[in-house]
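Fill in residues.
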């Protein structure tokens, strides 16, 4: 059978490759595709062909894929191509800000709302991401940054810290579990520091760690809030997984996003 998929994503890089892997896993082949970018989303229309028996599995995997914000599937009508005009209509229907209509009148200013409370992590999405990070480790920042951008703002801090904790615990088991029991200061020096250096240049600063290479500060604008939630969680996962220390909490006391020369992580137990 031949169907048309309309996929909306916030991820511009690697989207077609990721969708292709899902199609291949379900015995579908890509016949053609078109793509359009908006300020917020990527809209991709794909014509695919494969066995009807695998359609439900394909739809389920697309619907739960971390790069897919939403999608629609419909039977493909032979002879009806996805013209630029049709694609523009698809974009407009999904992202009305890009429809060819007069801009709305500005609404009266409303009182500033309180910032949303942090949302709990979504374990199902994280479980899909973790095997990909293990496969690519230590070159994980492309996937991690893409995943972070796909999250709602209220989810980012807690979810990215949780992802970092899971990755840090995995790295501890892989690289450091056979080592001797260490106190906090020596754990920072002999576990946290070398593990961080696998990811990005890092230097000790007393019993803290410093890096000026964190990718989480790039493009975040000038913000007083720390941005390196994944790295805080990563360091916590490394040091807490052994169970040999009092519970360690990592805080980012300086961040390049706030104008500091580097990002500084301190450890409390």
């Amino acid at each position: 059978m031949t169907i048309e998929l309309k996929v909306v994503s916030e991820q511009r890089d690697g989207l077609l490759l990721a969708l292709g892997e899902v199609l291949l896993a379900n015995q579908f082949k890509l016949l053609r595709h078109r793509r359009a970018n908006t300020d917020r989303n990527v809209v991709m229309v794909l014509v695919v062909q494969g066995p009807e028996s695998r359609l439900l599995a394909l739809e389920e995997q697309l619907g739960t894929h971390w790069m897919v914000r939403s999608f629609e599937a419909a039977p493909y009508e032979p002879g009806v191509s996805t013209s630029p005009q049709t694609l523009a209509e698809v974009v407009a229907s999904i992202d009305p800000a890009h429809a060819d209509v007069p801009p709305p009148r500005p609404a009266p200013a409303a009182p500033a709302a309180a910032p949303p409370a942090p949302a709990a992590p979504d374990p199902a999405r994280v479980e899909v991401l973790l095997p990909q990070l293990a496969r690519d480790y230590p070159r994980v920042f492309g996937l991690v940054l893409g995943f972070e951008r796909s999250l709602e703002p209220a989810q980012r801090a807690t979810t990215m810290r949780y992802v970092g904790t899971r990755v840090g615990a995995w790295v501890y088991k892989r690289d450091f579990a056979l080592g001797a029991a260490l106190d906090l200061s020596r754990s920072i020096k002999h576990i946290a520091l070398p593990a961080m250096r696998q990811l990005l240049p890092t230097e000790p600063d007393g019993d803290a760690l410093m890096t000026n290479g964190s990718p989480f500060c790039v493009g975040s604008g000038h913000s007083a809030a720390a941005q390196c939630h994944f790295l805080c969680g990563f360091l916590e996962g490394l040091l807490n997984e052994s169970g040999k220390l009092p519970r360690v909490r990592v805080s980012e006391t300086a961040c390049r996003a706030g104008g500091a020369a580097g990002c500084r992580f301190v450890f409390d137990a």
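The first helix runs from residue 15 to 25.
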